[in-house]
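Recap from last week: sequence in, structure out.
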Amino acid sequence: MIDIAHIHPMLVHFPLALLPVAICAQLIAAFKGQGLFEHSCPSTTGVALIVLAAAGAIVAAVFGDIALDQAIAAGVPADSLETHETLGQLSAVLLSALALSELWLYRKASHNVNVNRSIWILELAVLAILLSTAWFGGQLVYDLGVNVTLPAS
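Predicted structure tokens:
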């Protein structure tokens, strides 16, 4: 049976993959001369992928808390986990806020150029935070061996 702490690393790949693809879909919309929130295929795809990325980030954060508890129970110092935990929670909250904002703007079919630019900046900022979270998570696994079961020798 799979260790529940191993579900978190599986889930984190959804927002990490979906957010950049969503941004690419919105780039395609922009290159076609469409706004981010027009009801076209690329813009609709971008918004849908951001919503899925946010849902994935929330679920990953929940399982991250479970993995954190197991790591602490196994003797990993809590201070080595704090940065990743804080960034993970921040990523989930910001990605969820971004998804809700985009859904609202999509529903209004907003064509405001300044709003589109602001959303682009927010998306890139959230992506940077998400990638930072992933980097710190990788450090925990690859440098400290957090929640990694070593094979019997």
